[in-house]
Amino acid sequence: MGTKIVRLAGGGPAGMAILSGVLLILAFPPFGLHFAAFFAFVPLLVALDGKRPATALLLGFTMGFVFFVAALHWLYTALAVYGHIHPLLSILLILLPDAYLALYFSLFAWLVSRCTPGEAVIMAPVYYVALECVRGILFLGFCQHASPPMIQIASFTGVAGVSFLIIFVNAAISYFLGRVQQGAASPIVPLAALAVVAVNVFWGMGEISALEKAGGVPFTAAMVQGNVSQDEKWDPRFQDMVVHRYLDMTRDAAQKKPDLIIWPEAAAPFYYGNTPHYTEAVRAAAREGGVPLLFGGMAWERGPQGEDRYFNSAFLVRPDGSERRYDKIHLVPFGEYVPYREFLSFARDVTKAVTGDTVAGTSTEPLRVDGISAGVQICYEIIFPEGARAFAQNGARLMVNVTNDAWYGRSAASAQELMALPFRAVENRMPVLRAANTGITAAVTASGKILHPTPLFETMTAVETVIIPPVGGQTFYTRYGEVFAYACVAVAVWHFIAHGARRRKQP
C-alpha cells in the first residue's frame, strides 16, 4: 500500500515508525498538540503495507518505545533523585516498563498487518482498544482532555470510545493514501471518518448545554498548594515549617467560608493520630475555621501479628470533631512497595520515604462533606477508571484527587496526570477537585472542563466553585463500565480466529 509513500518520506519503514512515535509525543504534554493524535499513527500504518510479521512487530515496537521513553522520562527524577537508586539502575527500571508498554504497539502493528486495507479501517481501532483494555490502562484518548465536546462520549464508552475514534481517523487516512498510490483515490472513507468525529463533537456540545441548563448544587473548595519540595517533606528539620505553612494557609482559606479545604497527598509530614501535638493542631484548625478539612498523610497502625502497617491515606476532619479516613487502594510499584521483593530487594531504598511497604486499602465508601458524598483518589489512582466508578456506584457525587507531584520536578508528569480528570468527571457526571503539592491544582466540571489550573511550584490556594448535577440516574458508563472496550476485545478475538481459519483454507 505505501511503499512509494514510505520512499518519498525518507528514512524507510523504521523512520516512519519513529515519526509516528514523535507525532504521538506532540499530542501529549508538555506539547499538547491534541490534533496530532488523529494522524500520528498514519506513518506506521502506511509503513506496515506488505511487511512480514516479524517486521510489523518491530515497527510497532519502535513507535511505542520512542513514545513511552519520551513520555515517561520523568520517572528518572523519582527513582534516581528522590528514590536514591543508582542512575544506571534507575534507567534500567525505566526502560524495562517502556519496553513492556511498547510490546502492545508491537502487537497492534502485527494484528493490523494481517488485515486487508479495507478491513484495517475498522479493525485497527478495534484491535487498539482491545489491547489497551488488556493492558489495563486506556491511555490514548487522554490526549483529547482539553476538548470537552469530544470526550462526552466517555459517559457511555469511557476513554475507549475516544481512542477508537482517534485510531479510526488514522486508519481512514492511511487507507486513502494507499488508494492514492493505486490511482483509485476516493475521499469517501476519510470524509466518513471525519463526519463521525464531527457528529460526536456536535452531540457532545448538546450534552454540555443540557448539563449546564440542568444546574445543580454549587460546591466551593479551597485547594491548598503547599509547594513543599520532596527533599524537605519528611526531613525532621523542616517538619515544623511544613505543618505551620499548611495551618496558616488553612486559616486564611477558612475566612472565605468554602465548603471544604483540601491539602495534597502526604501534606502532613507526621503520622496523624500518633503524633499528639500536630494531630491536635490539625483538629483545631478545622474546629476553629468551621470548615471540614481533607488532607493527605501517612497512617500507621499495629497489624494483627504485631507488625507495623503503613497506609497512604486521606483524612477528613470535620469541625464537630468527627473523622473519616480513606486508604489508597492502587499503590505505586517501586514507589510505595517493591513487587516481587524476594527478587528485587535491591530496590528497597525507593520506599524508605514511607518507612517500609505501604498496605493497600479496600474501601470505596464515599466520605460525607456537608451533605455531599465525595470519593477520594490519591495520586495516580485517578488514571484508573474503576476507582472513581466504584465511588460513583456507591453514591459519590464529587471526586477529590490529592497528589504530590514534587517527585517529578518541572516535568510533564503533573500535566499528564491531570489529563485523566476530565474523563473521570464525564464518565460519572461528577466534578473533580485536585489539590497538588507543587501543582497543577485545578477543578474540573462535570462536563470535563478544567477550571483555572495553577502554575507549577507556586505556594498558593486555589478557590473554585463547581456545580454538582442534580441527583438522577447514573450514566451508562457508571452502571456498566467498560462494555465498549470488552466488546472490542470480543470482536478482536473473533476476527483473529476467523482470519486464521480463512488463511488455513486458502491454498
Q: How would you characterize this protein structure?
A:
With 507 residues, this protein is α/β, with parallel strands linked by helices. The protein folds into two domains: 3-212 and 483-505, no CATH class; 216-469, Carbon-nitrogen hydrolase (Nitrilase/N-carbamoyl-D-aminoacid amidohydrolase, 4-Layer Sandwich). Helix content is 49%, strand content 15%. The chain contains 20 helices and 13 strands. The strands form two sheets. Strands 1, 2, 3, 4, 5, 6 and 13 form a seven-stranded mixed sheet that branches. Strand 7 (367-369) and strand 8 (372-378) form a beta hairpin. Helix 2 (12-26) packs parallel to helix 5 (53-71), helix 5 crosses helix 7 (87-113) and helix 11 (159-181) runs antiparallel to helix 12. The longest helix has 27 residues, at 87-113. The model is unreliable at 351-355 (pLDDT under 50).
List the helices and strands and how they pair.
Layout (H helix, E strand, L loop, with lengths): L2 H7 L2 H15 L10 H4 L1 H6 L5 H19 L3 H8 L4 H27 L3 H19 L12 H4 L2 H4 L1 H23 L6 H27 L2 E9 L4 H4 L5 H16 L5 E3 L5 E4 L4 H14 L3 E10 L5 E10 L5 E5 L39 E3 L2 E7 L6 H9 L4 E6 L9 H6 L1 H9 L3 E5 L5 E3 L5 E2 L8 E9 L7 H5 L2 H23 L2
Parallel strand pairs: 1-2, 2-4, 3-4, 8-9, 9-10
Antiparallel strand pairs: 1-13, 4-5, 5-6, 7-8, 10-11, 11-12
Provide tags for this entry:
six-stranded mixed beta sheet, alpha/beta, 2 domains, Nitrilase/N-carbamoyl-D-aminoacid amidohydrolase, globular, 20 helices, seven-stranded mixed beta sheet, 49% helix
